[in-house]
Write a structure and sequence with these properties.
CATH topology of the largest domain in chain B: ABC transporter involved in vitamin B12 uptake, BtuC
Order of helices and strands of chain A: HHHHEEEHHHHEHHH
Number of helices of chain A: 11
Distance between the termini of chain A: 53 Å
Radius of gyration of chain A: 19 Å
Largest sheet of chain A: 2 strands, antiparallel
Structural class of chain A: mainly alpha
Number of strands of chain A: 4
Number of strands of chain B: 2
Low-confidence stretches of chain B: none
Low-confidence stretches of chain A: none
Shape of chain B: globular
Structural class of chain B: mainly alpha
Helix content of chain B: 55-70%
Helix content of chain A: over 70%
Largest interface: A-B, 72 and 65 residues
Mean pLDDT of chain A: 86
Number of domains of chain A: 1
CATH architecture of chain A: Orthogonal Bundle
Strand order of the largest sheet of chain A: 1-4
Oligomer: heterodimer
Number of domains of chain B: 2
Number of helices of chain B: 18
Order of helices and strands of chain B: HHEEHHHHHHHHHHHHHHHH
Mean pLDDT of chain B: 81
Shape of chain A: globular
CATH class of the largest domain in chain B: Mainly Alpha
């Protein structure tokens, strides 16, 4: 039981991170119908900006951990969003009118480019960071196995919940959110009715990148080491999460992320660590066979 | 002077161009500041320190500013040309489609003649072999993506299945290359059917992600199933291809004849490089010939019809799942052949060779070449294999350039380099007068 609870906590932590990345995929897919393959790299850039920002703050003499974290959060979201915006502007906007595979290839190229860009500038070796947020609660102690909920995990949960709440409000009740929902339903019609489609799409990429940046910050603090290659697998899993939850649905992306995190944690806890990624993909295949629209997705009617 | 010409043509053009370039430079500054300007370095004892490179940021920003200005200027000049003049590449595409037969003949002649050219060192022939592997993979994937319109992001899985089939058959049963080749293709095709059966009902993008996942599963299994696949160490000592049983060695293992002894020529290691080159050339041409012929069969027609409109195909009574499955299996089979050849060429295979980047490169070759265009695949394979090769001196920058080239080519030619799609079936022969419809006014 204690072991189960511990895996549950670990899985939810991982799942929060995947969920935040998955939102970026699902929003972009909902609006322009493309798999933003470079989104995983945006998350990786977020992790690198986090580490750089923390180091700069430390050398500037900021010793208070909460202040450093809040400043880093703002800095990371800002710079990573700039990358998200630029990627859309350079690699996707010129291809919006062309056939479906063109933006995908462009995105794969962008992903390769960004990976090597970071590798070249920051080095290929993993970047270790000493634990910044330490300590935690012991929830339960049974039979020599104690269940820990670290302050860091708590921080990740709370930040995820806060972001999700803020984000849902933004989508549900601001002019920008309305424009995004309009674009999701019908780009051409939205443009005719005076929605600035280009600006809305740009802002969607900025928002997705900001959330991915937060995920990057979390993963840097949680694992304590980042390298230039973390974006690929996290990106694939987050996309899996988005598909699992139903592409285009925001609560679906979060739910999918949490499920993927839980599956991964329980699989590595009870079966084998080597095959944890296989478990994620196997579940994805099963879901797609039995419920092709994902858990919370709307059934799609194919029109002639 | 050129700037003056633009200023005269469009008042306010220069200030707005400067403003635009300034904005681009500002964005570049924001992008470069954290990742270029500040570098994490090991400061001893496992801790990280920060090194500053603000000079690089300045160079980068200046380069973006000037580059953007140049781009605006170039676009301004292009706009002054008549709008209906087709671009150079469009004309090249059309010509390549019209003269596809002569181009094919010349291309094949060049490919056959390559090892006999004066500049053909061992390195050139080896590079040619690499290009041909990618050409063959591109042609194989073209069946799936270009003809049937199914997006496959995990094609490398079938390549891996082919290579490991040969590796395991050789290690366990002592199979040679030629015996293992058909089996490798058959194994890969059955994997294609096993994967395709459940997932081919899915929509295009879901199919993409499932195939990607399948590619990763194969790689993870190959890495972790150590007692069969050798794990990360892979399989070594894979036998080389022979010439009708004559090995390309100095001395045959059991005192038998070798290729050089049989033909009474001096032994050089180049013979094997040449033989590999001709084997892959033959395999690639076989792939191409097969594809060209099958396009004229009902199943090939069904692939292309399915790509254009699935609902219409269903309405016409085409079994969409079976047709897709056949494309998937045939594409996988060619991937398996190529994998088998890859194993024989390297003599050593490990999961490292079958990562996602390979799938991305193969897909990029198909799409960059112009989907469905067989000549385009050759052109794209040449470009994509040679970019990293030319950049060998700039080892660190070559994958960077590769990614940038993928983005750049896509933006320049979104439908691919040679994207001239001609109808496969015509009601009337090209050039024939079209008969007037009955009852038309004279």
């Amino acid at each position: 039981m204690a072991y189960f609870l511990q895996q549950l906590i670990n899985g939810l932590t991982l799942g929060s991170i995947y969920g935040l990345i998955a939102i970026g995929y699902t929003m972009v897919y909902g609006i322009i119908g493309m798999i933003n393959f470079a989104h995983g790299e945006i998350y990786m850039i977020g992790a690198f900006v986090t580490i750089i920002s923390l180091l700069v703050l430390a050398s500037a003499g900021v010793t208070s951990i909460p202040v450093a974290l809040v400043l880093t959060l703002i800095v990371t979201m800002f710079f990573t969003s700039a990358y998200g915006w630029t990627v859309e502007r350079i690699a996707y906007r010129p291809l919006r009118a062309s056939h479906k595979l063109a933006p995908l290839i462009s995105a794969i190229g962008m992903s390769i480019f960004l990976q090597n860009y970071v590798q070249l500038l920051q080095g290929a070796r993993g970047k270790p960071l000493p634990p910044i947020v330490t300590g935690g609660f012991t929830l339960m102690d049974s039979g020599g196995f104690s269940v820990h909920l670290s302050y860091l995990q708590l921080f990740i949960f709370l930040l995820t919940v806060a972001l999700m709440a803020g984000f849902s409000t933004l989508i549900a009740s601001t002019p920008l959110g309305r424009a995004q929902r309009a674009c999701e339903q019908d780009l051409g019609m939205a443009a005719l009715l005076g929605v600035d489609v280009d600006r809305t799409i740009s802002l969607t990429f900025v928002m997705g990148a900001a959330l991915a940046a937060v995920a990057g910050l979390m993963v840097t603090l949680y694992w304590g080491v980042v390298d230039f290659f973390i974006g690929f697998l996290a990106g694939v899993k987050a996309f899996t999460a988005a598909v699992l939850g139903g592409v285009g649905s925001l609560p679906g992306a979060m739910l999918g992320g949490l499920l993927i995190g839980l599956i991964e944690a329980f699989w590595s806890g009870y079966f084998s660590v080597q095959y944890k990624d296989v478990s994620v993909f196997a579940i994805l295949v099963l879901v797609l066979i039995f419920r092709p629209t994902g858990l919370l997705g709307k059934p799609e009617v194919e029109k002639v | 002077m050129a700037v003056q010409a633009i200023a005269a043509a469009r008042p306010g053009a220069v200030p707005s161009a400067l403003k635009e370039a300034g904005l681009a430079a500002l964005v570049a500054f924001v992008l470069a500041l954290p990742l270029v300007g500040l570098q994490t370095v090991d400061s001893g004892g496992g801790a990280l320190g920060i090194a500053t490179h603000f000079d690089r940021v300045a160079y980068g920003v200046a380069a973006v500013f000037l580059g953007r200005l140049a781009l605006i200027f170039w676009r301004g000049r292009r706009q002054s040309r008549p709008a209906d003049a087709p671009s150079v590449m469009a004309r090249v595409s059309e010509l390549s489609a019209r003269f596809s037969l002569p181009i094919a003949v010349v291309g094949i002649a060049l490919a056959i003649g390559l090892p006999f050219m004066p500049f053909a060192s061992r390195y050139v022939v080896d590079l040619g072999t690499t290009v041909l592997i990618y050409v063959m993979l591109g042609w194989g994937l073209n069946v799936v993506v270009g003809l049937a319109g199914l997006l496959d992001l995990g094609y490398v899985a079938f390549y891996a299945v082919g290579a490991y089939s040969f590796g395991l058959l050789a290690r366990t049963f002592g199979f040679g290359f030629w015996e293992a080749l058909p089996l490798a293709g058959a194994f890969a095709a059955s994997f294609g059917i096993i994967l395709g059966f459940p997932v081919l009902r899915l929509r295009g993008d879901y199919l993409a992600i499932v195939t990607l996942g399948f590619g990763e599963i194969i790689r993870i299994v190959l890495t972790n199933w150590s007692n069969v696949t050798g794990g990360p160490n892979g399989i070594g000592n894979i036998p080389r291809p022979t010439f009708f049983g004559l090995p390309f060695e100095r001395n045959a293992p059991h005192g038998g004849l070798t290729f050089s002894k049989f033909f009474g020529i001096d032994f050089t290691p180049d013979h094997r490089v040449w033989a590999l080159y001709f084997i892959i050339l033959m395999l690639a041409l076989l792939t191409n010939f097969f594809t060209l012929r099958i396009r004229r069969l009902p199943v090939g027609r069904a692939w292309e019809a399915l790509r254009e409109d699935e609902v219409a195909c269903r309405a016409l009574g085409i079994n969409a799942t079976n047709v897709k499955l056949s494309a998937f299996a045939i594409g996988a089979m060619f991937g398996g052949f190529a994998g088998c050849f890859f194993g024989a060429r390297q003599g050593f295979i490990s999961p490292e060779s079958f990562n996602f980047i390979q799938s991305a490169i193969i897909l990029a070759i198909v799409v960059l070449g112009g989907m469905g265009s067989q000549t385009g695949v050759v052109l794209a394979a040449l470009v994509l294999v040679c970019i990293p090769e030319l950049g060998r001196d700039l080892a660190d920058f070559r994958m960077l350039a590769f990614g940038a080239a993928m983005v750049g080519i896509m933006i320049w030619r979104p439908r691919g380099l040679l994207a001239h799609r001609a109808p496969t079936v015509r009601l009337h022969r090209r050039g024939d007068p079209v008969p007037a419809p009955a009852g038309a006014a004279p």
